[in-house]
Every structure is written in C-alpha cells, then in structure tokens.
Amino acid sequence: MQQPRLIIIAGCNGSGKSTYSQSLVDDSIKPFDYDFKFAENYNALKDSEFREEFAKNKTTKELENLIQFSFDNGVSFCFETNLMTVPFNWIEQAKKQKSEF
After folding, report:
1. CB-based contacts of 26: which residues, under 8 Å, 6+ apart?
2. What is the pTM of this model?
3. Residue 88: which residues within 8 A CB-CB, separation 6 or more?
4. Average of pLDDT values for 23-28?
5. 22 and 30 Cβ atoms separated by less than 8 Å
6. Is the CB of residue 41 less than 8 Å from the CB of residue 55?
7. Quick one: DSSP state of residue 15?
C-alpha cells in the first residue's frame, strides 16, 4: 500500500495551476482549488464590507478540514496555492504524521 502524500501545487496567479493540477496527480485525488472555492464562497454571500473576509475564512476552514481529514485517515491530499493564502505549517504537520508526505 502506498504511503499517503500531501501534494502542493504552487505558482503565481495565472500560471496554470488549475489547468494542469489534475494531470499532475492520481485520478483518485481531486486537487483543492483555493481560488475557485473562494470565488464560490464569495458569490454565495450577500454584498457587505465583510464579504471578502467571510469568504476567505470559510475557504481556509474548508481547506484546513480537508487536510486534517486526510491526515486522520491516511489519505493523500492535493491543493493549489500561490503560497500567499495558505500557511506553511501544513507542510510541517504533514511531516509529523510519520508518512512520506
């Protein structure tokens, strides 16, 4: 059985992460597209001065929950990032899982 992996696809905005991410991972893994989920959450909210902050918080929480689920269940996980919205602490936490993340 293969060890679970934490796969991070990083690059500048507009560099093609979303376009190519699925071709870079196994078919069983659906990469978490932070920008897409943020836009989805943002558009679901009513217009207010806190709309962007609420959408960011919700999207970040969804990502954190999915990563934690992956750690807890020993399954591989992939997410896309420009490394500005996602903290590096996930890399260190993955290493602590004693898996080859």
Report:
1. 76
2. 0.79
3. none
4. 86
5. yes
6. yes
7. S
